[in-house]
């Protein structure tokens, strides 16, 4: 399966991290932190075991792995999609934005690693993939996620009231953030 991420010259190296494409061999390390209750609290879906996570990740067309000193500490999602466009200009809206997501091992929280990794990912989206906009969403109660979006310079564009059903907490508010390429470069 082809992916827009195929256009990137992997790996991408930051000051402390290596970002690379997901490989099937990454699944056990990813499962180790994704199965932590602190992480599972906020991710879209949990996996019962390594095999079910491997099935969900499939060949990883949207997944990027974050390594610190050769160890997987996080996984990122880049889902390139079409922006809304009127029928006369819909082709120009094709593959112009991406939805971003992230999950990090809690053992590495509080050191700026997520900000560093996501900053590199945003750069990839705008410089390597030529996108014009990135978006991300989270439960409003997931303060570390929306704080990360704000550190990246993303703006809160929406506060949806009790529109997102959490598996344990019931209906919760959602925040939606976005950033344009020219804002990132400015």
From TrEMBL:
InterPro entries: Acyl_CoA_acyltransferase, GNAT_dom, N-acetyltransferase
Signal peptide annotation: none
Domain of life: Bacteria
Coiled-coil region list: none
A GO MF label: acyltransferase activity, transferring groups other than amino-acyl groups
Gene3D superfamilies with a match to the protein in the record: 3.40.630.30
PANTHER family for this protein: GNAT FAMILY, PUTATIVE (AFU_ORTHOLOGUE AFUA_3G00765)-RELATED-RELATED, N-ACETYLTRANSFERASE DOMAIN-CONTAINING PROTEIN
Identification of the protein by name: N-acetyltransferase
Lineage: Bacteria, Bacillati, Actinomycetota, Actinomycetes, Propionibacteriales
């Amino acid at each position: 399966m082809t992916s827009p991420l195929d256009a990137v010259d992997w790996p991408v190296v930051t000051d402390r991290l290596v970002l690379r494409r997901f490989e099937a061999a990454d699944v056990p390390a990813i499962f180790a932190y994704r199965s932590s209750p602190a992480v599972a609290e906020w991710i879209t879906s949990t996996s019962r075991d390594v095999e079910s996570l491997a099935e969900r990740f499939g060949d990883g067309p949207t997944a990027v792995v974050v390594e610190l000193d050769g160890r997987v500490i996080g996984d990122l999602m880049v889902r390139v999609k079409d922006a809304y466009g009127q029928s006369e200009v819909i082709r120009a809206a094709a593959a112009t934005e991406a939805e971003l997501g992230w999950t990090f091992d809690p053992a590495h929280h509080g050191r700026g690693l997520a900000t560093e990794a996501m900053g590199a990912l945003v750069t990839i989206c705008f410089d390597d993939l030529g996108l014009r906009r990135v978006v991300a969403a989270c439960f409003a109660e997931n303060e570390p996620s929306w704080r990360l979006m704000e550190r990246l310079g993303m703006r809160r564009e929406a506060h949806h009231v009790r529109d997102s059903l959490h598996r344990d907490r019931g209906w919760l508010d959602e925040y939606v953030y976005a950033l344009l390429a020219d804002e990132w470069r400015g």
